[in-house]
Design goal:
Blueprint lengths: L1 H7 L4 H14 L50 H15 L19 E2 H7 L5 H9 L3 E3 L2 E2 L6 E2 L6 E3 L2 E2 L7 E6 L28 E3 L7 E7 L2 H8 L7 E8 L6 H7 L1 E3 L2 E3 L3 E8 L2 E8 L6 H8 L6 E7 L2 E2 L8 E3 L2 H10 L3
Helix pairs in contact: 4-5
């Protein structure tokens, strides 16, 4: 009687172990292998479909983990095909592509005015737009007020504050030529020349006029042929200013004699201006301004007047002054200086 009671009780470990083994063999199935999982059920799902959690497909709207969640079926291939067809039908008729908005006349040829000004060195495009808004820019004699105006850099004349803008790929430099440098871009005898100071420039430059080998000072270099031609043409009379060191005493009427004209072997030569800048004993520093460009003209004039020149420096070529530019230094002209040069020769 005791044995039967013990065998049917809860404390029999052997019986409990046997029941546990039986439940494991006949109870719920274990985790299915990958090839046994089913994901191609229909939208309604089946009782054999994958469950939520680690083995099931989680809907896109459900956040977080899948433990204890509801069963979410996967999408069938037929269902995906219907979605693709519906999207194709929805956008099939929308073939017109909207072009980006632009200013009127964008189809015209040429470049935007603010872009041309920016390339010429007048600042950023925004700064150039401000110049246009301030009515400081004109094209072919007409003040431009609207933004987006297109111009042809090869044909149109553009001015800022009344000064012509070099809209093309022109370069303008001022060189303080040292004494002993030949005024040529190349020298067959191997002497130091102007070309030695511009060897790193992409564009070929040429000099405007000449300076004697022993004369120092301003000489202009550019690739603008018409400007260079006009600056040296007698018709436009561009003035050049020189400082000359001579030994005195200098008579009071020397300036009048130079202005009236000095007879040279190739004709009269006249100075436009003369003044004594400095005197130290018998040493005089005098300033001579003239618009002629004959060879050795200043040296020949002063020598004919009885005052040979010891040292000569050209301090200005038209509106371009030497200032504090050091000997042998090359500097790019500002836009204002280029405009002043062009105004000087009616360009």
């Amino acid at each position: 009687m005791r044995s039967s009671g013990k065998s049917g009780g809860r404390g029999n470990p052997r019986g409990a172990g046997g029941n546990r083994d039986q439940r494991q063999g006949q109870g719920r199935p274990g985790k299915p292998r990958p090839e046994e999982r089913r994901h191609d059920v229909g939208p309604g799902g089946t009782k054999d479909g994958p469950k939520s959690g680690r083995g099931g497909a989680k809907p896109s709207s459900q956040k977080g983990g899948g433990r204890g969640g509801r069963t979410v079926p996967g999408r069938s291939r037929e269902y995906e095909t219907r979605i693709e067809e519906r999207n194709r039908d929805r956008y099939a008729g929308k073939k017109d592509v909207k072009l980006p908005k632009t200013f009127p006349g964008a189809e015209q040829e040429g470049e935007r005015l603010q872009k041309v000004l920016a390339r010429a060195g007048y600042g950023s495009r925004r700064a150039c737009e401000d110049l246009i808004e301030q009515a400081r820019v004109e094209v072919n004699g007409e003040i431009v007020l609207e933004q987006g105006r297109r111009v042809d850099p090869e044909k149109d004349e553009v001015k800022v504050d009344g000064l012509t803008v070099a809209t093309q790929s022109y370069q303008f430099f001022s060189l303080n030529k040292p004494a002993g440098v030949v005024s040529t871009m190349e020298d067959p005898d191997g002497r130091q020349c102007l070309g030695d100071y511009v060897t790193n420039r992409e564009t070929r430059l040429f000099h405007v006029g000449r300076l004697d080998t022993e004369t120092e000072g301003v000489i202009l270099l550019t690739n603008h042929g018409e400007l260079a031609h006009r600056l040296t043409h007698p018709r436009y009379g561009v003035k050049k200013t020189y400082l000359a060191h001579i030994v005195g005493p200098v008579p009071r009427d020397l300036g009048k004699r130079l202005k009236d004209g000095i007879q040279l072997e190739d004709g009269y030569a006249r100075a436009d201006h003369f003044r004594i800048v400095e005197q130290t004993g018998k040493n005089y520093l005098v300033e001579v301004t003239l618009h002629e460009g004959r060879k050795h003209i200043v040296r020949r004039m002063l020598a004919e007047a009885g005052f040979p020149v010891d040292k000569l420096v050209r301090t200005a070529f038209g509106p371009i002054a030497l200032g504090d530019q050091k000997s042998g230094w090359l500097r790019r002209l500002s836009n204002t200086e280029v405009g002043m040069l062009m105004q000087e020769v009616e360009l």
